[in-house]
Amino acid sequence: MIEFKNLSGKRVRYGAYKKLYKKIFYKSGNSFWLSAVFAPPSLMRRLNKKYRGKNKPANVLSFLLEKNLPGRQTGTGEIFLNAKEKNLPYLFLHGSLHLLGYDHKKNKAAEKMEHLEKKILHKK
């Protein structure tokens, strides 16, 4: 299940995000409760400073709240998207993959994550 919250004041159409959500979570066999928040840069700056120690607006932040609930491969997470950024669907995908455990701290992991992003974005 996915829910949306728009704190940005900008108009957001959710259809593309719903489709991406299904591609990312259902097709991978994960049942995921996700909240996607479209936030203004000021909130993204505060969250980035609080959780990452960086005093600048992040483009996307992901928070895994619960993982692998009893009896199924599932989780609960929250993605904050900087509504001023371009290519928000890509940032939504990127943040979602972080919730599934992907990262880009090392070259090999970054290549794997980038390959998966391209595969999902170009899949019909």
Can you describe what's shown?
This protein has 124 residues and is an alpha/beta fold. The protein has one domain (2-122): Collagenase (Catalytic Domain). It is 42% helix and 25% strand. It contains four helices and four strands, in the order E-H-E-H-E-E-H-H. It has helices at residues 15-26, 41-52, 88-99, 107-122, and strands at residues 2-6, 31-39, 60-67, 74-82. The protein has a four-stranded mixed sheet. Helix 1 packs parallel to helix 3 and helix 3 crosses helix 4. The longest helix is centred in the last third of the chain and has 16 residues, at 107-122.
Question: Any chance you could write out the topology, listing elements then pairs?
Answer:
Layout (H helix, E strand, L loop, with lengths): L1 E5 L8 H12 L4 E9 L1 H12 L7 E8 L6 E9 L5 H12 L7 H16 L2
Parallel strand pairs: 1-2, 2-4
Antiparallel strand pairs: 3-4
Helix pairs in contact: 1-3, 3-4
Global structural class: alpha/beta
Instruction: Please write the string of helix (H) and strand (E) elements.
Output: EHEHEEHH
Distance between the termini: 21 Å
Give me the oligomer status.
single chain
Major sheet: order of its strands? 1-2-4-3
Structural domain count? 1
Protein name: Endoribonuclease YbeY
Subcellular location: Cytoplasm
GO molecular function, one term: RNA endonuclease activity
Cofactor: Zn(2+)
Q: In a nutshell, what does this entry contain?
A:
The chain has 124 residues and is of the alpha/beta class. Helices cover 42% and strands 25% of the residues. It has a 4-stranded mixed β-sheet with strand order 1-2-4-3.
